[in-house]
């Protein structure tokens, strides 16, 4: 669908028309283009969602997740695409080049939004649809700028050019604020990943270890979450504390570090094992024995299971299988929770456990002025309970929020009630909780203006990682 859209560019005409309508201050053209854009967007979303529903399960790929965290470079691509389209219209050279420019900026995030709808993943949908809206407006304003440059604008006086320029600049500046934040976060995460890689590799090489996986994330409170999997000749009890101290010194921030050590023996031990290459000729059994339950599970995980696994432990005596998801997994916790239940239904006589990589816990949202748990919130809490159990954590921080003036003077109390009801559910599930109320949050007024008041009608659950003294 995306490749075809690059050649046909169904949204190009309406968006170019919107740009000319802005340049000429033509309300009727703006309405016509708006109707065409809405119809095109709905059509693209429906087609994308139907394709995803009809296809086998597709976990979020890096290409999909790249469209959920737009940054300033995406806005620059959209501006350049709009300039190409505007220039092509002025020169009457509409063709595949302009179509590719428009579709490259619009169709991938729109198709990703359709995937988010089909998968009921609002994080994917909201991030990709925001990228689409940003690109669409940037293209429209760029086309308008090109139209005015070539004398097609309805400018009766220099003052009209001034206010149109200022209005377009203000809209693009507002769109740039969250994009710049995302870009800064991506740069910070990349630098932290590089520093963590250097620190851990130096320590591991000195002790005969080998790093297999590494993941770096940021918690909402600014702490750095680092998870690593190391292949070791023997278990090193002091490695987590030693590496955590080195990471804190290198990153200059509080670090929560989790190290999984996989004992594989020394290089000499591995060399003593018989080599398949050295003994390539092996007689095939005439009648191979039937596969055991353990072999069936291994075969299913290797050939059918759609999620990336970094490590597995299958115990045929206890009939249990524990699967550590790879850091490359880009989906959410709800998907893993459902995947574990599907595995359990396929192998009912076994205990199937999926261990997710470190990931932010789902946020519990509330209706305006309410502090009651609806079915959606309860599903999120069950996912939180499952993730915390798989991570082996017993303590969490529960933070309650409310939108500004949501319940007048009782808004702070509403935030407290939200934290209390979530904490009570978690306590009943066997966790220790520490409740906090943040009302108003720093910069909440500006953030509500950008994200809406509903963004603060929530309770956030933060894992409390044990700190060794």
TrEMBL record:
Record-linked Pfam families: DUF389 (PF04087), OmpA (PF00691)
InterPro entries: DUF389, OmpA-like, OmpA-like_sf
OmpA-like domain mapped to chain residues: 366-443
Membrane-spanning ranges: 33-52, 72-90, 96-117, 129-149, 161-180
Keywords annotated in UniProt: Membrane, Transmembrane, Transmembrane helix
Listed name of the protein: OmpA-like domain-containing protein
Organism: Sulfurimicrobium lacus
């Amino acid at each position: 669908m995306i490749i075809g859209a690059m050649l046909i560019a169904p949204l190009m005409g309406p968006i170019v028309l919107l740009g000319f309508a802005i340049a000429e201050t033509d309300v009727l053209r703006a309405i016509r283009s708006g109707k065409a854009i809405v119809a095109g967007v709905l059509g693209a979303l429906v087609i994308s969602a139907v394709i995803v529903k009809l296809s086998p399960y597709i976990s979020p790929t890096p290409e999909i997740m790249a469209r959920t965290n737009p940054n300033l470079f995406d806005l620059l691509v959209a501006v350049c695409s709009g300039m190409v389209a505007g220039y092509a219209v002025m020169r009457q050279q509409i063709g595949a080049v302009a179509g590719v420019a428009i579709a490259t900026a619009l169709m991938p995030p729109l198709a990703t939004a359709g995937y988010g709808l089909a998968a009921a993943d609002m994080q994917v949908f909201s991030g990709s649809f925001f990228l689409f809206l940003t690109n669409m407006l940037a293209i429209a304003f760029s086309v308008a700028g090109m139209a005015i440059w070539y004398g097609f604008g309805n400018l009766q006086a220099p003052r009209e050019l001034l206010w149109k320029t200022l209005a377009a600049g203000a809209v693009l500046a507002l769109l740039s604020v969250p994009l710049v934040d995302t870009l800064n976060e991506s740069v910070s995460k990349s630098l932290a990943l590089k520093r963590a890689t250097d620190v851990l590799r130096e320590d591991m090489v000195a002790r005969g270890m080998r790093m297999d996986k590494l993941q770096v994330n940021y918690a909402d409170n600014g702490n750095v979450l680092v998870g690593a999997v190391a292949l070791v000749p023997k278990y090193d009890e002091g490695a987590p504390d030693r590496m955590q101290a080195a990471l804190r010194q290198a990153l200059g921030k509080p670090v929560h570090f989790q190290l999984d050590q996989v004992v594989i023996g020394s290089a000499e031990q591995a060399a003593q094992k018989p080599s398949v290459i050295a003994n390539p000729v092996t007689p095939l059994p005439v009648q191979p024995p039937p596969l055991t339950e353990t072999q069936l599970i291994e075969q299913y995980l290797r050939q059918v299971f759609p999620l990336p696994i970094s490590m597995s432990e299958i115990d045929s005596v206890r009939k249990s299988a524990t699967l550590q998801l790879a850091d490359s997994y880009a989906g959410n916790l709800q998907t893993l929770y459902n995947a574990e239940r599907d595995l359990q239904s396929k192998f009912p006589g076994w205990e199937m456990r999926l261990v997710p990589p470190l990931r932010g816990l789902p946020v519990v949202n509330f209706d305006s002025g309410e502090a009651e748990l609806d079915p959606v919130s309860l599903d999120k809490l069950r996912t939180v309970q499952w993730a915390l159990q798989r991570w082996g954590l017993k303590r969490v921080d529960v933070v309650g929020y409310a939108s500004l003036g949501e319940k007048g003077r009782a808004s702070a109390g509403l935030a407290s009630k939200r934290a209390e009801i979530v904490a009570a559910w978690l306590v009943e599930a066997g966790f220790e909780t520490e409740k906090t109320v943040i009302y108003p949050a720093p910069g909440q007024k500006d953030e509500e203006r950008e994200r809406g008041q509903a963004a603060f009608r929530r309770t956030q659950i933060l894992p409390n990682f044990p700190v060794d003294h």
